[in-house]
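re: ur question from yesterday

yeah so i grabbed the chain u mentioned. its 525 aa long if i counted rite. heres the sequnce exactly as i have it in my notes:
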Amino acid sequence: MSIVSAVTSNGGTPTSGAVPSPASATVAIFGASGDLTARKLMPALFDLWNDGYLSDASPIVGVARREKSDESFRNEIYEAINGHVRSGAVTADQWAGFSRRLFYRQLDIASPDGYAGFREQLETLERQQGTGPNRVIYMATSPDLFLPAVEHLGFGGLIPGRDVPEWLRVVFEKPFGHDLASAQELSGNLRRLLREDQIYRIDHYLGKETVQNILLFRFGNSIFEPLLNRNQVDHVQITVAESQGLERGRGGYYDNSGAMRDVLQNHVLQLMCLIAMEPPAQFNARDLHDEKLKVLKALAPGNKGDISSWAISGQYSAGLVDGQAAVSYLSEERIPADSRTETYVAMKVLIDNWRWAGVPFYLRTGKRLPSRVSEIAIQFKQPPLNLFNTVECEGDVCELVGTRPNKLVFRIQPSESIKLSFSTKRPGMQYQVHPVTMDFNYKQAFSEALPEAYERLLLDVLRGDSTLFMRSDELEAAWQFVTPILEHWKSSDVGPEPYRAGSWGPRIADAMLINDGRAWRTPSM
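ran it thru and got these structure tokens back, copy pasting raw so excuse formatting
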């Protein structure tokens, strides 16, 4: 994984510990008229340039079907990113420097006819900008265009061979397939045209600061890693919750995807891999991917019974979120009245290996939950003897309670932090338990703003570092586990369990943990 501590001399402010700048490359965004380009990619590229990580010799080319001039494209990008970059407002000098490398080229991505001309346009632009033929193609398109676009790149002479010095790297957004068979087919077809080291399957969660810090926290501190095993851990909970519904007209996409494909199959399983994987032999992309793959191959159902006993789907009904009325999923725009798409998934899984045998991992994700929060909570086992008690009161009701279990919590969003809770003695003449928390918060510890996930991932693509991207065998192993669940839900006579918008999900998901003598954690802000 790249750990960056320096910048080069363009529009940004240098820091100490200089490292070589990334090779200059053309960045071409296919689908540049879309929401992803405006909200995520262009702000990230601006911040990379402003911090000195993106060379002045790197043109950024928006590619889409509509006719548009460079100037109008630049105006659109300015409106999109001003106020949405890390520095806040974009100054006149910053924009003058950044906009000079913004260009627009019209291309019907689905048709092979224009690609030869597009290659000539890129070559002309690269000669004018004084950059080489190295290129990043970012597929910010619908997934049905992934394969045709790469095929057309090949026909247009835009895919360099293995024995030439120039390189091409192609970035794909999720979803990458919709089940095991489609993912295997897509990967197989792409491998006819691209090498694995040219394919970057992006999962923006892996670019978040706290997610990356999981690896350093585990393998850079001798006191914690020995505790993460079946002897010390009671269970692990991973929550990726959204308070939003289907804003920005996403109903058509989401109803063909659902919570399993949209979040759990990728984001949640990747978080699980990082917290459960063995230490890699070396800290490089190949060894890290190998260890994550072992976790995915060791995944097993949490119960021996029917799938419905350990994998639960839900769909939100009308309710209140943050005090605002929220309509049901079936009342959302572009959602069929009889849709059985799940907006919530809860699962109990096991990892059948030496480290984690018998330790349940409870995974959940959903829309229209009380808050937007993502976290990994590791609950440790209680001491073998409960030697200490205390009295806790809620109103007029008091009870004698024992020591609370220790917890280690990685907060991924919205406020990145790492918390460790443990018990201490309450001041006084008696041995009474008092729970306390050691809290590391990024914003309190560091004055500078954290890089956005897309910044780090785009920089890694430029550097050819695939550590934070999914390898094809990882992707297929994840699909292999979740596809039977999706097929079971599709063939079942029973649809997803309803839950009220603004709640933490259906009651049947609560019952799954209650049956184990546990309860879902309510994430604290």
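noticed a couple things. The chain has a mean pLDDT of 89. also The first strand starts at residue 26 and ends at 30.
anyway ttyl
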